[in-house]
Amino acid sequence: MIKKLSRCIGEYKKDSIITPIWITLEIVMEVIIPMVMAKLIDLGVDAGSMSAIWKYGLILLVCAGFSLFFGVMAARSAAVASAGFAKNLRREIFHNVQTFSFSNIDKYSTGGIITRLTTDVTNVQNAFMMIIRVAVRSPLMLIFSIIMAWSINARITMVFLAMVPFLGVAFFLIMRGAFPIFERIFKTYDKLNNVVRENVRGIRVVKSYVREDHESEKFKGVSQTIFKDFSKAEKIIAFNGPVMQIAIYTCMIGASWLGAKLIVGGSMTTGELVGIITYAMQILMSLMILSLVFVMIIISKASAERVCEIIDEKADITNGKDPVFEVKDGSICFKNASFSYSKNAEKLCLKMVNLEIPSGSTVGVIGGTGSSKTSLVQLIPRLYDVTEGEVMVGGINVKDYDITTLRDSVAMVLQKNLLFSGTIKENLRWGNKDATEEQMVRACQQAQAEEFIEKFPEKYDTYIEQGGSNVSGGQRQRLCIARALIKQPKILILDDSTSAVDTATDCKIRAAFKNEIPDTTKIIIAQRISSVQEADMIIVLDDGEINGVGTHDELMASNQIYREACLSQQKGGDFDE
Ligand SMILES: Nc1ncnc2c1ncn2[C@@H]1O[C@H](COP(=O)(O)OP(=O)(O)OP(=O)(O)O)[C@@H](O)[C@H]1O
Ligand SMILES: [Mg+2]
For the whole model, what pTM was predicted? Predict the structure, then answer.
């Protein structure tokens, strides 16, 4: 894991290495200062020599200045290194997520990916900063201070070294109590993120069902848990204070008592005593900080693991060897194709599908909700791979194509369609980034989107909000169809893409398809019989199996499910019929 993460330090290696160097220099200065201080007291104050006070005062000032300078430089390079490291981590995650197939995304969920990109990366960034700054600083400080104190007086140094095991045990006990709580808090953070995300995304639904109070309660519950856990953890951590105080005062008293005896005996000076007490403080402080850093690093280990997991995730749909870069035509063939979303599922979502669809034909797909209509067509642009059997496009197995080539030839308007923030033009250019104005207008005419676009004051430059929230459902569907048409695909798949469009417009769209893109294979999934009635071939799906294939008339005569659906839509006085 460490190897993988350190690879992401990349171009910030220089800053990462230079930080400990600056810190070492800073510590050298900080260690010299008590020494100079001792001299200033002994040779200046006690001896009453003004010139010595000036001399050592000046040295003190220079040392302090250097210490400050090194400290600032260390902070600067640590900040650059850790922020750069975080940037690289985010880039790695983001790039890898772009290669994910639908099934990779199913595994992580959108929320999980976002938490990893934000909170987890920030945790790792902070831990990294701690490692290159504090984790270097404290041990060095500890060693230098002990050496310096020892060189002044070994006996007094032994007094506060005796405190080290006491502190060690105390900190260990405190951390053992607090650590599990911190771990729990981080897990609850995930929950809090989920509650907030779900609420903000679905705020309109929350409002229309007047569920604000319920949502507030849910939020309050999670946030209360975090509050309680945090207070509990902080209460335990708060013992650090008294423990430190005990250690410090014991050291002070011990050192003063021993020191006083030595001073009276003439084997030690006042300055030396002051110096040694300062070193004692530095030793104890370093110990305390070290214990805290240790906890922080362990806490962020969980985040580091989550980050590594997503960087390591391999996309499970990739190009094969010697991929094919041309799709000959829009013919489709399913051969004994079976499919399931998870590798070890007992129940198959699609069972032994066999189909022959000639290029340029119009195919309707009908079936109840959950009958695997979407699952069937997703196999054509290889959004998922078949579990068994094969799917061919233009006479070649979809797995043998270059994925970009295949997906450029197969345009699919997803059931959960989406527009992105940007102008209408920018959204349309997703289909083809070099599309000309005429091509865009033409695609919009075919998708019957032109009439409403022309009514917008800024026409094709109208700004679409995130998710397309400022256009109606039917308008969004038509823009999505236009975006797919701009690709000039060999196969066009509409997954329930005209469900929010009125019947007359739906009819116009189908007429445009028939007249203007006769060579494109069109697959239309619909709930309304009227949307597929004129298709060359209608597929009736039932619980993942093909129940019937034929034209409207053939199915009316032979297929019960189709006939019943048709009759119920007529009888129900559905406005479509
Ligand atoms: N991403 C997924 N992960 C796991 N199971 C899924 C996933 N998507 C769909 N399913 C399951 O697969 C089955 C078929 O779903 P599918 O979306 O293909 O149905 P559909 O015919 O398109 O339905 P609808 O008319 O509601 O769109 C359902 O039982 C569904 O629960
Ligand atoms: Mg569907």
Answer: 0.71
